[in-house]
Amino acid sequence: MDYNYRPTVGTPMEELDTPCLILDMDELDNNMDVIAHFYAGQSSKLRGHSKNHKTPAIAHRQIRRGGTIGGVCSAKVAEAEVMVHGGIPSVFITSEVIAPLKIDRLCALAQDAEMLVACDDPKNARDLSWAAAAQGVELGVVIELETGMGRCGVQDAQQGLALARTIQGLPGLAFKGIMSHQTIPVMPDREDRVTEARRVIQGVINLKDTIEADGIPVEIVSTGETWSYDAVGEIPGVTEVQGGSYLIMETSYDYMTEFHHAGKVLTTIVSTPRPGVAVGDAGIKAVGMLRAMPEVDGRPGVTVDSMDPDRTVYKLDAGVELQIGDQLALLPPQQDAMVSRWDRFIGVRNGKVEVVWDIQARGCHN
Length: 366
Prior knowledge:
This protein is an alpha/beta fold. Helices cover 30% and strands 26% of the residues. α3 (77-85) packs parallel to α4 (100-109) and α4 crosses α5 (122-135).
């Protein structure tokens, strides 16, 4: 969503043209500080996932704040290109890269940054090797282990070991380690999260031990995510954690109360057609509805009743009133889908615009 709207620094929030995507800078800094403080005492560090914010300026701020590996994850080659061209020195593409054109683009990035890529197939490893050798670069290859997502990854330790042996013998490639990704139902209790994290990641540690027993060093063990950032960070052998959602936040992670909602869609009430009902100027195109309806930030008694592409209908509890021109902020149920709809973040602090950041990897699907 873009019509070249870029407010100047110092613009009051009430004067912003809506709908627009705002970042509460206090909450963003809080989320970065939680990570920085936690990983300050850990041997593992965070490798923030850039697919959540898609913005090199935010990645640099995240790295400077502390607690990170000094690089980021990306889901796609196109996202990685934005991060490398934006000056990020180490990028790990956590999806397998198969198409010859995409492999060539990946190798080109290795001229300017450390490039790591997930792999779960010997033929893919050979294709990566051929392209890397042809371009005279080295790619770091990380074997993905399937740990419950039902998607990519080798299925067991022996398959992983065989692939590690293959990668070891290929020119242009450096076997770096292993990775996994997993999800769980909502688990507000930290003890439950720790137990589940240790259970699913034990397979990753077993694969590490199997490969190292064969005499192959495992430099990187990359796993975890927002729900397990604290549990995985304390598991011996894990070197980096792929947290992403914590930074902007979404309603599905509300049980992680140490993190605060930073990314919100600011919207204006444009109609109050009857008692108990108000209509706002932001709809599905602005917020997304991948998992559930968005929630209204800090307005008790105001809930989302329905949405169409360009409008949201709000239900008001008895005694609650909204006026035409009132502003609301919507919290996304799934932030990736929301962020990818916008061209820029408008960072606000103390009710005024502090910074405007272009979302340079918006729409980078390839």
